[in-house]
Amino acid sequence: MKSKQSGITLIGFIVVLAVAGFFAYMAMKLVPAYTEYAGVVKAMNQVSTEGVEGKTLDQVRRDLVRKLDFQYVDEATVHPSDITFGAGAGGNELRVSYDKQIPFLYNIDFLIHFSKSVPVQGNVAPPQ
């Protein structure tokens, strides 16, 4: 009786390995941006629980930037101009919206847009 061999050939294994390597490289480039975003969300939640009553927008921005530093968010990622405050559906909201460009291969980049808003307690004082 002849037995038929089964399994993957060397060429097939190399193709599977190349595809898996491509996606692993993509994940290595993208995962740090999403963990950084998780730090932004955590810092925003900390600011929202503290409240902003009587603080100016610049003080709220400084507080948030300080908390972002504790979360290992790069200063070049979130600029103070990306932090806004305004009225939302459930009251006042603190909003952070920024773009992150990640080089991938040669002239191919990933452009990721992050946007988050959290409700805050209190009103921001007008600038003096």
Description:
With 128 residues, the chain is an alpha+beta fold. The chain has one domain. It is built from two helices and three strands, in the order H-H-E-E-E. The protein has helices spanning 10-50, 57-70, and strands at 83-88, 91-105, 108-119. Strands 1-2-3 form a three-stranded antiparallel sheet, covered by helices on one side. Helix 1 (10-50) crosses helix 2. The longest helix is centred in the N-terminal third of the chain and has 41 residues, at 10-50. The relative contact order is 0.17. Keywords: Membrane, Transmembrane, Transmembrane helix.
Note the topology.
Elements: H1 10-50, H2 57-70, E1 83-88, E2 91-105, E3 108-119
Antiparallel strand pairs: 1-2, 2-3
Organism: Dyella choica
Transmembrane segments: 7-28
Protein name: DUF4845 domain-containing protein
The total count of helices amounts to: 2
Helix percentage range: 40-55%
Say how many strands there are. 3
**Largest pleated sheet:** 3 strands, antiparallel
Q: Approximately what portion of the residues adopt beta-strand conformation? A: 25-35%
Protein name: DUF4845 domain-containing protein
InterPro entries: DUF4845
Transmembrane segments: 7-28
Pfam families: DUF4845
Explain briefly what this protein structure is.
This protein is α+β, with helices and mostly antiparallel strands and 128 residues long. It has two helices and three strands.
